[in-house]
Write a structure and sequence with these properties.
By secondary structure, this protein is an alpha+beta fold. It is built from 7 helices and 19 strands. The strands form 6 sheets. Strands 5, 6, 7, 8, 15, 16, 17, 18 and 19 form a 9-stranded antiparallel β-sheet that branches. It has a two-stranded antiparallel sheet with strand order 1-2. The N terminus is likely disordered.
Length: 461
């Protein structure tokens, strides 16, 4: 007697319209699926599993992460019986609304092993760590340079007694605890005029760095090393947006690109969801996993977010347990190339020469007149100022900048001198004998020992 096959039993049954599975069946499915992966992860032999519910036969080799990820993908695929071609169908067409405090905290993918990168002529030293490339030494023929002719700086304006008193009265009116009678009635005994010099040296330089970089490959042509020889780091054209301002840009070194299989997902394009750890669900944020919530009336009713289950489908993977790989953005391939970072930096040093009681920081903030300015690829120190301290400061700072940036290429230098007029006023009021200073073209006042104050709440400007 011929044995009865399972197909005969199925053919004898009447066709029944399938109903929607219960929600807990999905949880049982994922639990059985996770137990299956865990129970076979330690096996040394190849496991053959027949998934009759999906119509697939899956080979799951041991210690092969790519095969395990492809197995997870197949659990979400339906197979066309005629052609046998897997067709990916999402677990649910309805997207899950992220929780209000949802944050994609998945770490950025790590760099692939540098051993997998192509060998590029002239860039053998490049790794995924940034490496500074010093500028090439250029031996130019020496030319006779003559020191430029410079005119003597002009002298600053001189305040009268009335202008000094008006500046002090205006200053006192802005202080809540300063009396005006001292400024109005004080006897000005002496006025001394001087000039503060504010010297500034700027060196505008360029620095270049190289490093391997990778990004998802979205298709298109690749500028590989087989097309031409890559240029050197300092042979690539790049100009700053404006001189004497900090800026940077990143460029792809020509003829260094290549296509590699994504090292993060093994070329699958998807990997275990980081948010739900591959479970496909997470704790309900509304009821915190309890399934029920207390209402304002005091009743205990089922959570409408999770329908009393206590968990919801993961918002990131939509319940699949698998999310797009961040390394390749789901394409399975990455583009590797050498990245050139060009940084333009403006190095500034200052020096203030003044003989009054006004602090240097206030002199720098005061308005003055630019009496000297020079710009060139390489500057000569100043030597024509009547104040020798400015001449010495120029020599020292220019010599310091000449050797301070060995890994950078100096593009331009600029030096300028500002004159800030300073007037020191000696006065007498009652039994007080002291001084105050008026500086800058806007006539700022520095009077830390003003004799008529009623409290110590005001700060000195």
């Amino acid at each position: 007697m011929r044995p009865v096959h399972e197909s005969d039993r199925i053919s004898d049954q009447s066709e029944v319209t399938p109903s929607a599975p219960l929600l807990h069946d999905f949880d049982d499915h994922w639990s059985r699926h996770n137990n299956f992966i865990h129970s076979h992860s330690q096996s040394n032999s190849t496991v053959l599993t027949n998934s009759s519910s999906y119509g697939l036969t899956v080979n799951l080799p041991q210690e092969d992460s790519c095969s395990r990820q492809k197995y997870l993908l197949s659990k979400h695929c339906d197979v066309d019986n005629k052609q046998g071609t897997p067709e990916v169908k999402p677990k649910s067409s309805e997207l899950v609304t992220p929780p209000p405090d949802a944050v994609d905290d998945e770490p950025e993918p790590t760099a692939p092993p540098v051993e997998l990168m192509d060998k590029v002529d002239g860039y053998e030293y490049v790794s995924f760590d940034v490496v500074e490339v010093p500028p090439p030494t250029m031996t130019l023929p020496k030319k006779e340079e003559e020191e430029p002719e410079r005119a003597s700086p002009p002298s600053g304006p001189q305040l009268t007694e009335q202008e000094a008193r008006q500046a002090l009265l205006k200053y006192v009116s802005t202080r809540c605890c300063y009396g005006k009678s001292a400024a109005r009635d004080m006897a000005i005994t002496k006025i001394e005029h001087s000039c503060a010099f504010h010297y500034t040296l700027e060196t505008f330089s360029e620095k270049r760095q190289t490093a391997w970089a990778f990004e998802p490959y979205a298709g298109g042509t690749i500028d590989s090393s087989s097309t031409d020889t890559p240029p050197g780091p300092w042979e690539i054209f790049a100009v700053p947006s404006s001189p004497f301002m900090n800026s940077n840009t990143q460029l792809e070194v020509p003829h260094t690109a290549s296509i590699k299989t994504c090292h993060t997902c093994g070329g699958v394009g998807r990997k275990r969801c980081y948010t739900c750890s591959g479970n496909g669900y997470e704790q309900c944020y509304s009821c915190h996993g309890d399934g029920y919530k207390n209402t304002l009336s005091g009743s205990h009713e089922r959570c409408f977010r999770c329908h009393g289950i206590g968990r919801r489908r993961c918002w990131k993977c939509n319940g699949d347990g698998l999310a797009l790989c961040k390394g390749c953005a789901g394409t399975g391939q990455i583009k590797c190339y050498i990245r050139l970072t060009v940084a333009w930096m403006n190095h500034t040093d200052e020096h203030v020469v003044e003989h009054s009681a006004v602090p240097d920081e206030k002199i720098k903030s005061g308005s003055g007149q630019v009496v000297f300015e020079e710009e060139d690829e390489k500057l000569w120190p100043i030597n024509h100022f009547p104040n020798t301290a400015i001449n010495m400061a120029s020599v020292q700072l220019i010599q310091q900048h000449a050797t301070a940036f060995p890994a950078e290429k100096v593009l331009r230098q600029r030096q300028r001198v500002r004159i800030i007029p300073v007037t020191t006023v000696h006065y007498q009021w009652k039994n007080h004998n002291n001084t105050f200073c008026v500086f800058g073209f806007e006539k700022k006042v520095y009077a830390p020992k003003y004799p008529q104050t009623c409290c110590c709440a005001c700060t000195v400007l």
